[in-house]
Every structure is written in structure tokens, then in C-alpha cells.
Amino acid sequence: MAGSRLEKFGTIFTRVRDLIRGGVMKHEERPLWYDVYAAFPPRDPPLAERNYDIKPVRRILYPEDKIRADFYKTYGTPRPMDLTDLDSVSECQKFILKYQQLERLGKYQEEAELFEAAARALQRDGVILKKRQLKPVTETVDEPREGQRDPTLNIRISDMIKEALQKTETEKS
Amino acid sequence: MAAPMRFGAAAVMQSAVTRGLFRSRLFSASTAATPLSDLAKQESSEKVAPSILQKDESTMERILLEPLKHPDFFEVNKLFTQRDLFNANVHVGHKEGAWDRNMYPYIFGARLGVHIIDLDQTVELLNRALNFTAHMAYRKAIVLFISRHRQFTQLVEDTAKDCGQYAHTRYWQGGMFTNATLQYGEGVRLPELVIFLHTLNNVFEPHVAIRDAAKMNIPTVGIVDTNCNPNLITYPIPGNDDSSEAVELYCRLFKEAILKGKAKREEIEKQIATEREEKTRKEGA
User: At what angle do helices A111-124 and A64-75 cross, to 10 degrees?
Assistant: First the structure.
């Protein structure tokens, strides 16, 4: 039974087709899938080596992302989200809808005003929004200041060993 | 050979060289060795429908070539919608840094560092793959489901059992395809289609069976995530292979496609048998 194990060369179809063309495999001996592949080939021939002109993958961003960023910065995640429920609408999504409604009405122009107005509208609807408590950023790393170092840190083990050796020498002598 | 058979729920390629080998005129000359679990079934079916052996060229043509003329003979496009794929998180890929560059054509974009798979392409490629699978099942192919993702071992084996096919979700020994005649004996029948629910093995490398199936000229269908290499897979399906909703969806779709193919084949053979009966009755009368 003729075969071709050169998976890096051509596709399974081209190899079998060429075996038949070359007379090594009889047409009646063709594999079960041959006719099906010929009638319904894959969209791209399954070649082992393929070259792509790889351009940067596009970043998926929406205009509402700005509103989302501000919402989460101010309020954080108000409540844990249940991801199993496909129809549930998160607080952030409701906020965005209100924001866009007010934007369309045209009463407010400033982003900050729109933000506050949307928050008020949402609270009127009964959604509780609590502003996030951000920790004040003061010093980054606690570095030891002079005069406040723990005195036990001044002990050095090499000095202790020296003292212990001197003691034994004096005891010996 | 011991490893895959130890957990024996789903039958794996077991070699039993049958006496009285069945050779079909149109198919490959490698003899059909029936797996032990199927021997009983096959023997009974051969007793029930001996007309299979008596079919002539025109009947075989009618059985095998007719379905190839329709673009979607088994109506696999009705098995799912793009919305089903979205709800099952099929579009969610891995983080940008973990991608395989060969997945570039299938990626729609990146959302905050996570690659998103183009579901338009997934729909098209899934239709092609399911169509191919159904046609192979119609032609009584042996289908082997492979997955090395331990979370879905049970699911894949049950799927294979439910559609009367085979599964291999354990350690893949080196020469299972390429050294089959030595490992399983002469006359072993290799699968005619391999379906990968997960293309990668436990150490995130491509499963050896992908390359081996390509070597043995066996077509493959496989779910490729953004960190997989789809090149050697005959009918790749770009999609998420990590979330359970997605994998359950794929298993359901493959099972239904295979069952549809088998059912259609049974239907047509029954039709031919009844036609033949009527003919003999008329001739007798």
C-alpha cells in the first residue's frame, strides 16, 4: 500500500493526488476521504509552512470605554457581577446608557457635568453608587531614617565570634 | 498499548484481525480489522444486510456520489448560530503574548490584552469541518476524538461513545499511527478522521498525533485556540478551547454531525433494500 509521509511538503490531498497521478496508487485504492476533500476542500490548503504579512493586531476600543474608565476609577466595582446570567446589565452599563441619553439631550457639554448628572440620574433610579476611598499616596518605600534604627541591628556576628574566640584563648592561658 | 486500553470505557484502536476480511472495491485496500467491541455488531449487520456485498457500481455511485453534489447535504449549518458561539465564549482567546503567529489570520483583534477570535471565520470554518465530518460518518469512517486536556477527558470519551466512535484522551505513545502494524498487528485499520478537541498536550506543545496524522494522510479537524498552530490541521476551527461551555458546544456539534451522517446512510441503504425487494417481487410475479 503506497503512502507518503512527507508532512512538511504539500498537503495530504496533493500527496495522494500525485501518488495516483504517478501510478503508484490506483484510483480505486484512493482513501475514503479523497472524494469528500475534492468536493469540499478546506478554505486554506493545510500547508505546514505558511507566510503571513503580520501587521499589528487591531486594538478593540469603543467610545464608551472612556466613560467606563472614569466610572470604575470613581466607583470601583459596586457589586460582584454574575457572569452566568447573559441578560443582566451591570451598573456600569446602566451608567453609560444614562450618560449617552443626557449627551443626546444636549443640556450639558462638559464631561464632568455629564458624569455627575448621569450619577444623579442613576441614583434617582435606585442604584446605589458609593465613591471609592483612594489611599493617599505619600511616601513610596519606608526607608530607615537616622536615629531610629533598631539597636539590635547594630550587632555584627563577626564581632561576636571574635569575642567568643578571645574568651576561649584567655581561658586557656 | 497497555496505557490507552487500561481505562477501557471508550474503545481505542484495538486490533483484531478478522477472518473473512471485508474488502470494498472502492476503498483503500488496507483490510478492515474490526475492533473487539464492534465485532458482534458487524457480524449481525452483515447477516441482516448481505445486499451490501451485492451492490453494483451504479448503486455504490448513487450512495456515495449523490451527497457530494449538495453544498450542505446534512444541513450542518442549522446545528448552531453565531450567537451560540458568542454565548459559549468561543471568541475569547489567550493573552496577546501567548499567541502563535500562525493564528494571525483568524484573530479579529485584541481587547485589553486578550486576543479575540473572528467569529465570522469561525462560523464558516466550523460549517466546513462539520460538513466534512458528516460526510465521513456517512461513508462509515472511523473517527478518533483526541484531547489531552484532563478537565474534559470524561466528556470527550462520552461523546465518542454516544456517536459510536472512538476516543483517545490518554498519553499518546510514539508509534500509534506511524508504527501501527508493529504495535497492533497486521491488517489494522487506522482512523479515517481525527478530531482534536484540544490541539496542545499537557506541556503546551502541539499534540504528536497532528503531525502523525498528516504523515499517514489522515485528514484532521481541530479546535485551534490563539496559542495553537493550525497549519497541519486539514479543517481547523479557530475558537476557545479552555472554557467548558465552548468545549461542550463543540462536542455536541461533532456528535450531532456524526449521528446525522450515520442516520442518512442507514436511511439510504434501507431505501435501496426496499427498492430491490420490490424489484425482485415484480420479477417473480
Answer: 70
**A42 neighbourhood in chain B, CB within 8 Å:** 125, 128, 234-236
Q: Which residue in B134, B102, B192 sits closest to A47, CA to CA?
A: B102
> What's the confidence (pLDDT) of residue A147?
65
Instruction: Give the residue from B281, B273, B274 showing the smallest Cα distance to B54.
Output: B273
**Rounded-to-integer distance, Cα A160 and Cα B8, Å:** 69
- Name the grid cell of B63: 450512495
Distance CA B285, CA A101 (A): 83
The string of pLDDT tens digits covering residues A17-33 is 999 999 999 999 999 99
Q: Which residues have C-beta within 8 Å of that of residue B132, sequence separation ≥ 6? A: A33, A36, A37, A40, B193, B219, B221, B234, B235
What are the residues whose beta carbons fall under 8 Å from the beta carbon of B167, sequence distance 6 or more? Answer: B10, B12, B144, B145, B146, B147, B156, B157, B159, B160, B161
| Cross-chain CB nearest to B211 (options A7, A15, A42) | A7
Which of A1, A35, A50 comes nearest B68 by C-beta?
A35
Question: What single-letter amino acid sits at B8?
Answer: G
Range of lowest pLDDT (A6-15, A34-43, A114-123, B42-51): B42-51
pLDDT category of residue A136 using cuts at 50, 70 and 90: low
Rounded percentage of chain B residues whose pLDDT exceeds 70: 81
Secondary structure E strands in chain B? 92-95, 107-111, 114-117, 143-146, 166-168, 193-196, 220-224, 235-238
The per-residue pLDDT for range B94-128, each reduced to its tens digit, is 999 999 999 999 999 999 999 999 999 999 999 99
Query: In Å, how far from its chain's centre is CA B72?
Result: 17
Per-residue pLDDT tens digits for B134-164: 999 999 999 999 999 999 999 999 999 999 9
Interior angle at CA B18, CA B14 and CA B24, nearest 5:
105
Q: What is the largest CA-CA distance in chain B?
A: 78
pLDDT level of residue B39 (50, 70, 90 thresholds): very low
Q: Do A42 and B235 touch (CB under 8 A)?
A: yes
Output the nine-digit C-alpha cell for B266. 442507514
CB pairs under 8 A between A and B: 106
φ and ψ at residue B281, rounded to 5 degrees:
-65, -45
Contact B249, B257 (CB under 8 A): no
| Grid coordinates of B258 | 456524526
Locus of grid cell 458528516: B134
**Are the C-beta atoms of residues B250 and B221 closer than 8 Å to each other?**
no
Q: Which of A8-17, A53-62, A152-161 has the lowest mean pLDDT?
A: A152-161
Nearest-CA residue of chain B relative to A84? B87
